[in-house]
Write a structure and sequence with these properties.
alpha+beta, 3 helices, 4-stranded antiparallel beta sheet, single chain, 8-stranded antiparallel beta sheet, Umud Fragment, subunit A, 202 residues
Length: 202
Amino acid sequence: MARTKRKSTSGSLIEFVTIVAIALGLALGIQAFIVKPFRIPSESMEPTLDVGQRVLVDRVTNHFSSFHRGDVVVFKPPKGADTDECGVERPATEPCPTATPDKSDTNFIKRIVGLPGDHLKVLAGRVYIDGKPLHEPYIRPDANCDLCQEPREITIPPGHFFMMGDNRGQSADSREWGPVPKQWIIGKAFFTYWPPGRVGTL
């Protein structure tokens, strides 16, 4: 009887460990290939996203469709983002047209404002595409920051996206280090789950 009980206990333990291992494997697989949690590290996306807020990032959809203007995405910026460096020399009145060739190891979160082929400039912290201002109700504009007056137009290269933070006076973004290749985009942020008062879709 005691031997049977020990076998039963041993079998239950093995079953429990197996279930935990499978659950852990599924969780890691989901995070690696389907949905990734991301913590907002800075104030660059305020008022849309606050420091410490947490979002979920869709890592699947970008393999089957393109990104759109207005999407909030997590991506690897060019290495120029680590040193505030554009890939080419350019006047202070022009957004960075070309990034450094290598990518950074850091993850950034910004909003897509420029698509491949767009003619883009920045006036008073607002984006102009082909000479027309974007409708950007989500931003915190700033007319006086160093990166907020760049009236010389650039053309976004094929396969690249121009990223900017919603907090225009407190965001280091593509204005400084250039457009981002599509393959460096990890995915689209689609849901915020923390803090409880900010739960909802993006």
